[in-house]
Design brief:
The complex is a heterodimer of chains A (about 280) and B (about 350). By secondary structure, chain A is mostly helical. Chain A has 2 domains: about 10-65, no CATH class; about 65-275, MetI-like fold (Orthogonal Bundle), CATH 1.10.3720.10. Helices cover about 75% and strands about 0% of the residues of chain A. Chain A contains 14 helices and no strands. In chain A, helix 2 (about 65-70) packs across helix 13 and helix 12 runs antiparallel to helix 13 (about 245-265). The longest helix of chain A has about 35 residues, at about 10-45. By secondary structure, chain B is α+β, with helices and mostly antiparallel strands. Chain B is built from 8 helices and 20 strands. Chain B has helices at about 40-50, 90-100, 105-120, 135-150, 165-185, 195-200, 220-225, 230-235, and strands at about 5-15, 15-25, 30-35, 55-60, 65, 75-80, 155-160, 185-190, 205-210, 210-215, 240-245, 250-255, 260, 265-270, 275-280, 285-295, 300-305, 305-315, 325-330, 335. A 6-stranded mixed β-sheet of chain B has the order 6-7-8-3-9-10, sandwiched between helices. In chain B, strands 13-12-11-14-20 form a 5-stranded antiparallel β-sheet. In chain B, strands 15-19-16-17-18 form a 5-stranded antiparallel β-sheet, with no helix packed on it. In chain B, helix 2 packs parallel to helix 4 (about 135-150) and helix 3 packs across helix 4 (about 135-150). Classes of the chains: A mainly alpha (about 280), B alpha+beta (about 350).
């Protein structure tokens, strides 16, 4: 046996040292991630004069920033717009993506692989690259300054279709064949077998879709100049133009916007992690 | 109940032909087992009967109706899959009643049918459980229950016991056979396990490379195989093949085996079941490789030249690995095959 294959004994002290090092590294990474968020919350409770002080907890913390955000600008409307658009995109996208994923995984039709590759290739193109032609198309369809303009272009998501297709490929084909013999049509198999079996992956995708659209900025900024259609991220960005240095208001608004994201992540973190593990991406 | 007629059935995947003009008649209420090595086309043929694979040529009829162009649900068949194929998100009762729900059977009638099938299979206490909460044997029963409630004309089984351990397999084998005796439904059963085929079938169809090698009752195939493949496939332990020559009315085989035979002169292969060979202590042509006592009998692995054989003796033996021995066989216990065509000579 070569030396390389020999088991190297590790003393208890060495194991503890390694564990402590890992804990310190994890702690530092955690602080690096959490600190900006803590700083955001900290600024949200400060007055404009204290915005750039180095104290994490302000001596005279105030809720005035939050009051301002909800009273001086229609921030509740922005939140409603974001909620409505994110929910609609999520529901419609899941409806179509499950069908597309199932068709690409299971149904045999000419050009199936080409269509899948075409969808997959859109992974390589980011929104800024296509935003001008997309804007032109949406404008020519008369969807500028409308919910349709905010929702419809956001529905297509190659990641969702890819993830669902991979998931459906992992479902044993015999289950569908058993349903065929039991008398189910393709539509019935999709509704009664495939959709219920997709619940875990659909819930993970629903969270990802919702969060993506809740936090989307570039497309809503491009398509909606009407303030009554602004979504939260556009609304937050607008603080900097209206109030040149109102970081306290921006941070208060950002804190409010982060709450649903945070709640969703805490409640559904298992599904989110599962979806990332399943896809092998990101 | 119904008969199944397969006439000149062909299956092609593009240019590759995997079923070559197969003819099989399965009688009303008969239990027919398709058996053969992996890749012989038995599962494909079963799936063609089920309607899960298109038929490239020939016809398949169920109850005298050609079903080539019928959807699986229109064929009035039920199928049990190797991996059970239960719906994981449905309870046992929902799994068994799914087909009834689709065919709009009233709730009361469906419930009665599911309970009846559950009683037959001893699943009464498990109706509210999910497949993930069941053992392999219980899942297999649910899969059978799902087939029973539909009251189909034909049962199709695709290697249903492959995923079970040896003990459970023997138990489920007996249960399936008992179920068939009780329901008398025409059954086509696929397996690669010749013991399963021998113990369960009314008739066995032996397949190889998409061709039927032989059809017959288990004992017909055991006693009267028409090719070396069938002789070697049926029987456990496998039959022994000893090459030799027929000359002047006597077969002279490797290892000094000889006996009188009136077959045509020339090269031949003698095939002898392990329990039909006897030890001839005076001889020394065969080396003893292994001795495996099982209590009731002892298995001996012997070698002469490049030929290895197995014999089983019911008497206790003092032979040990490394010893030498001779062999004897009665002419009536030996089958002769042509080594070129592998067909039976005598």
């Amino acid at each position: 046996m070569s030396k390389r294959n020999k088991h190297i004994p590790v003393t208890k002290g060495q194991a503890t040292t390694v564990r402590i090092i890992w804990m310190i590294v994890s702690g530092i990474l955690g602080i690096l991630i959490l600190f900006p968020l803590l700083w955001m919350v900290s600024i949200a409770f400060r007055t404009s004069e204290q915005t750039f002080t180095s104290q994490l907890i302000a001596p005279d913390a105030t809720l005035a920033n939050f009051v301002h955000v909800f009273t001086e600008v229609p921030f509740l409307l922005y939140m409603w717009n974001s909620f409505f658009v994110s929910t609609m995109v999520t529901v419609i996208a899941l409806f179509f993506h499950t069908m597309a994923g199932y068709a690409l995984a299971r149904l045999r039709f000419p050009g199936r692989e080409f269509i899948f590759l075409a969808i997959f290739s859109t992974f390589l193109v980011s929104l800024p690259v296509i935003i001008v032609p997309l804007f032109v198309i949406v404008k020519s369809m008369g969807m500028l300054n409308s919910y349709a303009g905010l929702i419809i272009p956001a529905i297509f998501n190659a990641f969702g279709i890819f993830l669902l297709r991979q998931y459906y490929l992992s479902i044993p084909r015999e289950i569908e064949e058993a349903a065929l013999i039991d008398g189910a049509s393709y539509w019935r198999i999709y509704l009664s077998i495939i959709l219920p079996l997709s619940k875990p992956i659909m819930s993970a995708l629903a969270i990802l879709f919702f969060l993506t659209n809740w936090n989307s900025f570039l497309w809503p900024l491009t398509i909606a100049s009407d303030p009554s259609l602004w979504m939260v991220q556009v609304g937050i960005a607008n603080f900097s133009s209206q109030y040149a240095a109102s970081w306290n208001y921006m941070m208060a608004a950002s804190t409010v916007v982060a709450i649903p994201t945070l709640v969703l992540f805490i409640v559904f973190q298992k599904q989110i992690m599962d979806s990332l593990k399943t896809s092998g991406l990101k | 109940m119904a008969s199944v007629e397969i006439r000149n059935a062909v299956k092609k995947y593009g240019e590759v032909q995997v079923i070559h003009g197969v003819d099989i008649d399965v009688g009303d209420g008969e239990f027919v087992v398709l058996v053969g090595p992996s890749g012989c086309g038995k599962s494909t043929l079963l799936r063609m009967i089920a309607g899960l694979e298109e038929i490239s040529g020939g016809t398949i009829s169920i109850a005298d109706e050609v079903v080539n162009d019928l959807e699986p649900k229109e064929r009035n068949i039920a199928m049990v899959f190797q991996n059970y194929a239960l719906y994981p998100h449905m309870t046992v009762a929902e799994n068994m009643g799914f087909s009834l729900r689709l065919s709009r059977v009233s709730k009361d009638e469906a419930k009665a049918k599911v309970e009846n099938a559950a009683d037959i299979l001893g699943l009464g206490a498990l109706l509210d459980r999910y497949p993930g909460q069941l053992s392999g044997g219980q899942r297999q029963r649910v899969a059978m229950g799902r087939a029973i409630v539909r009251d189909p004309k034909v049962f199709l089984f695709d290697e249903p016991l492959s995923n079970l351990d040896a003990k459970l397999r023997v138990q489920m084998r007996a249960e399936i056979k008992a179920l068939h005796r009780r329901l008398k439904t025409t059954t086509v059963y696929v397996t690669h396990d010749q013991v399963e085929a021998m113990t369960m079938a009314d008739r066995i169809v032996i397949m190889r490379d998409g061709h039927i090698q032989q059809i017959g009752t288990p004992l017909e195939l055991y006693d009267n195989p028409q090719s070396m493949f069938v002789a070697g496939f049926i029987g456990s332990p496998s039959i022994n093949f000893i090459p030799g020559t027929l000359k002047d009315g006597t077969f002279h085989g490797i290892g000094g085996l000889s006996f009188a035979s009136d077959g045509p002169e020339g090269d031949a292969v003698a095939a002898i079941r392990p329990n039909k060979l006897g030890l001839s202590p005076g001889g020394s042509e065969w080396d003893v490789l292994e001795v495996e006592p099982t209590g009731a009998e002892t298995m001996l692995m012997l070698q002469a030249g490049e030929v290895q054989i197995t014999i089983s003796v019911s008497d206790r033996t003092t032979l040990e690995p490394g010893d030498k021995t001779g062999l004897s066989a009665l002419p009536g216990d030996v089958m002769l095959f042509d080594p070129k065509t592998e067909k039976r000579i005598l």
